Amino acid sequence: MKMGLLVFMRNVLLALCLFLVLGFLYYSAWKLHLLRWEDSKYDKLGFLLKLDSKLPPELVSKYSNMSEGVCKPGYASALMTAIFPKFSKPAPMFLDDSFRKWAKIRDFLPPFGIKGQDNLIKAILSVTKNYHLTPTLDSLSCKRCIIVGNGGILANKSLGLKIDDYDIVIRLNSAPVKGFEKDVGGKTTMRITYPEGAIQKPEQYEKDSLFVLAGFKWQDFKWLKYIVYKEKVSASDGFWKSVATHVPREPHEIRILNPYFIQEAAFSFIGLPFNNGLMGRGNIPTLGSVAITMVLHNCDEVAVAGFGYDMNSPNAPLHYYENIRMSAIKESWTHNIQREKEFLRKLVKARVITDLTSGI
């Protein structure tokens, strides 16, 4: 009798174990299928594959009823997170005196970090002593920002007043303002550049704007130290073309762009070759994409104007301020224009950014 009971109990336990194993295998297969289905919603970089101009359901109640023209708090970062869940907003625009503590840039050489530049950066920041926007702009609860590119598509669009209506107007390199105000506006909050791209004639600088260095190589930080300390710039410091020898700005009007934006634009957003974290062929984002990355972290609404090269129109003007044609553009050693276009089109399609000139 006892023997029969033991056999019965053994069979029950075996059946129960088999049931549990089969249940676990079924659950694991279902979970794996679910994960694969989730993964299939995103491209290899992590962007949502199916993009459209409709607000995600979770954001409709927050933004759909806001009046036209009213700044929408957190709008750009919310949409960016919706299409790229890995996006993390906190990232300061400029380096401050705690720059050594930021692990994301500490271990990378320029342009993707600050490794080896500690002493130069410390010397610069000890004189500039300002690491933010102006107090007035910092006090805004909602910031509308626009990056004005240099593209010929800006010509004859009469967007000047619309551009000047933004809280923060960002210009790049040496693109002029004077004489082109009707199309590009007259307001400049900051000008982001590097030694070879900076305006070389002091009289061409606009008043009351911040001068922001994007450091792509160690010589750039050395150059900025010369500028800040009003020392003589050495032309033999490894620059690939002539550089500005004087910038008509006081130290408190000078900033250093956080190199994390170069790193994030290159590797996370555009998907350029990592190359062990070193500068190499085709892995440097353009200044325009870097600036967009910066404002996604620091502005509530983001727009661009003057972006995009139409290679199908060889006779179209390359820049709004000169007669060079699109056909003059050559394959770049440092940039991957096609990859950048793909990134920017994602942002425009999902309404993360607004393209005023429809060039992207």
UniProtKB/TrEMBL annotation:
GO terms for molecular function: N-acetyllactosaminide alpha-2,3-sialyltransferase activity. Belongs to the glycosyltransferase 29 family. Disulfide bonds join 145-299. Keywords: Disulfide bond, Glycoprotein, Glycosyltransferase, Golgi apparatus, Membrane, Signal-anchor, Transferase, Transmembrane, Transmembrane helix. It is found in: Golgi apparatus membrane; Golgi apparatus, Golgi stack membrane. This is CMP-N-acetylneuraminate-beta-1,4-galactoside alpha-2,3-sialyltransferase. It catalyses: a beta-D-galactosyl-(1->4)-N-acetyl-beta-D-glucosaminyl derivative + CMP-N-acetyl-beta-neuraminate = an N-acetyl-alpha-neuraminyl-(2->3)-beta-D-galactosyl-(1->4)-N-acetyl-beta-D-glucosaminyl derivative + CMP + H(+).
